[in-house]
Amino acid sequence: NIIISNSNIQQCLYGVSIGHNQSRNINVTNTNVGAWVAFTTNSHGMRQGGFRKVEGGQIDGCFKFVQLGALNQQPEPTMFLGVYGESMGYVGDIANGAAHTQGVVFETCQFNSQATAYNYSKNTLNITGGSPSVTFRRTTFTGQKGYHFNNEGVIEIDRCVFGITPAAGETTGTNLASE
Known about the structure:
Helix content is 0%, strand content 52%. The chain is mainly β.
């Protein structure tokens, strides 16, 4: 077990990187992260690590909230609970190569996208590999861009709020799209 709590991780490329396939019970609580990628499992080592739960804390100025690779054999979904993300480029990338993945749940999170500040206009969340399921439950999405989900898996959106403010020169339109 690894527990990271009440910490401040700033000005680095990766905030928390878990890469080994035996790293399954990682908990992060009330930790503030300001890195290019806040949480990743496919950047170091075997690229098969996994988070159990990330709860509370603030993600500020990150280009990507998550960059999750082939999620390992966890008995329950990877949980992001009550995390506040501000001035982000986009939610990130979730890939999967294993059929036993339990998925990813974002619950009571808040995402404030600043995609125009990063000159980024592509997908908000990319899900590849066919089998990962992603659930957004009671999560709030605000910011300058609409939210576009590029998915090969299943996305469940349950009681979420979308409040998009267009940047200068942009027009309003559909603020939720999926391919």
